[in-house]
Amino acid sequence: MSPADIRALEDRIDRIESQLAIQQLPIRYALAVDARDLDAWTGCFRPDVDMGRHGRGRRVLRAHIEPQLRGFHRSVHQICGHRIEFTGRDTATGAVYCRAEHEVGERWIVMAICYGDEYARVDGEWYFSRRREQHWYAADVTERPQTVDFMGWEGAGEPALPDAFPSWAPFWKETT
């Protein structure tokens, strides 16, 4: 093999190993949230994670998320699909579909979620740089999402999907 062939093979192996490592992040995140393992959960994010006006770092992230996690008792996050697109050797973006269930008092809230992710490799390890949750609906398991205007749990906020997909409005614009 020529040096160029060896380098191409090394690059392909690196890409495969990177994709496998990134694919583990959403399930590690889900398991950590459901187990309320905040160290494992924050460990999915890069050490200097940017929390905007709140500051930077995993301690800031933990302080922000812990009160939210105390807003429901049990939870189950089921990862349903994952798309990854590399934007550089050490960066990527992705979308992760998830069905999440939350015990909120006497209610069992079901959510259909799409996470918009940014990933970065830091010191040889892949982490979330950013994770943005958007959902279609949140409703008690006994309710149809339409009967609660897709907003059956105030803790979930207003659903952004499907309107947030760039192709959504143009598709329906053609409908008479």
From TrEMBL:
All residue ranges annotated as the SnoaL-like domain in the record: 15-132
Highest taxon of the lineage: Bacteria
CDD domains referenced in this protein's UniProt entry, alphabetically: NTF2_like
Pfam families reported in the protein's UniProt record: SnoaL_4
Positions of transmembrane segments: none
Protein name: Nuclear transport factor 2 family protein
Species annotation: Streptomyces ureilyticus
